[in-house]
Amino acid sequence: MKKLILIAVCFTILGGCSSNRIKDEGVKRDGVLTAVQMSAWMYGSHVLSDDTGKPLTALSGQKIDLDEYDGQNVEVKGTLKGGYPVDSGPEYLEVQSIKAIKN
Fold it and tell me: How do the pLDDT tens digits run along the chain, 103 residues long?
């Protein structure tokens, strides 16, 4: 009985088996931000790419208007969403803060 209680407590503390729980906090990434038009992975409203256009990180921003930074070189900070990447896509970051970077 004690084992069942311990398992239930651990399951509750760890958030169960949800694949959308936060994977990592305080992540910082930089690159060129663009709105997602079409992609194979279909998650995130924007993407952060390197200088060659290779997608590095899919982004979403509940509290930030990412469209304001479209086409700009930026630094974003936020939390990685668990369960990603999928369909050969990039990691998925919920943006908490963003700033433009001068080249």
Answer: 444 343 443 333 344 433 444 456 689 999 999 998 877 788 999 999 999 999 999 999 998 999 999 999 999 999 999 999 998 899 999 999 999 998 7
Rg (CA), the chain: 17
| Nearest to 101, CA basis, from 26, 27, 60, 48 | 48
Q: Is the pTM higher than 0.70?
A: yes
Instruction: Write the DSSP string, 49-98.
Output: E-TT--EEEEEE-SSS-GGGGTTSEEEEEEEEETT---TT--EEEEEEEE
Is residue 85 reached through a cis peptide bond, with omega within 30 degrees of 0 on the bond before it?
A: yes
Domains of the chain (ranges plus CATH)?
22-100 (2.40.50.500)
- Contact residues for 29 (Cβ-Cβ < 8 A; gap 6+): 48, 56, 57, 75, 76, 93
